[in-house]
Amino acid sequence: MTTADAASSDPASSAAPAPATAAVPDHLLLLPLRQRIVERDLGVRALHLHRAGRDDLSHRFGDDTVENIYSVSKTVTALAVGIAAQEGLLDVEDLVVDHLPVPAGGYGAGIEQVRLRHLITMTSGSPILGFLDEHRDHEDLTGLFLGTDLVAAPGEHWEYSNGSIFLLSRVISERSGQTLRDWLMPRLFEPLGILNPQWHTTRDGYSWGATGLHLKSGQLARIGRLLLQGGEYDGTQLVPSRWIDEMHGDAAWVATGDPEPEAAQYGYGVWQCTPEGVWRADGALGQIILVMPRQRAVLTITSRLEGRSAAETQRAVWEELLPLL
């Protein structure tokens, strides 16, 4: 008998190789992450884990109240752009000035070259970042943005900009005749079971777009599930799958120049994460949706961080949960 024959006749050798780690029971899957959250006092309020074909898991560290999701609002606005493009209201290659009225003082230098793609990737070159003290209560934020000279050519420089994302909200309002919030009600919110979301508005009545959307953690988790499932929810394609792919595709990523690895690449309202293939929606004070396509999972986190970065929370997920999925 040859060595190969001996090996093939051994029942143990013909069995499938044992996994490196035994499968963790569902009721224990979040336990290591929960323990680290408590030990490090990470300020997390709720965890929701959705896995394709498996039961959802969740844990709350406090009451499930309606909270500002801050810049996760940007991801929702990015979804709206994809829906609007499908309906023929706009195209990301459109010039911004083709959709908005001319400001009273005329266009700022370079503004006529800014495209919607520059807004969604925060590469417009405008110094009007928005929602700073001097801009928050401006009576015409749209006119301020369009009437101010660029400080960089469109597409050449990335700078985090609430103003750019607000302008996308403004474009959809101009094309649809509704606020972004109202326009999204039958297209996104109601199909997700989000029946009366509140979204802060500017002084002239437009949804902020960049921030100010208020949701409960479970409602935010439904948006996470939509992202994981390529825009589909409960059998209905709410957002084109190709748009979800484009939001975090190779062509979308823009280098931000930030030394923090978790903040080095920005797409269409989303961030690239350090684990390969993982991307996220990210809001102030620790509101996060972590999309993990290779694991067929999405984790939604709501928090109340004060004076701290959510990067430590993300590292806890990479070390305590991701290896178990």
TrEMBL record:
Domain Beta-lactamase-related: 61-317
Name assigned to this protein: Penicillin-binding protein
Highest taxon in the source lineage: Bacteria
Lineage, uppermost ranks: Bacteria, Bacillati, Actinomycetota, Actinomycetes, Micrococcales
Organism: Brachybacterium alimentarium
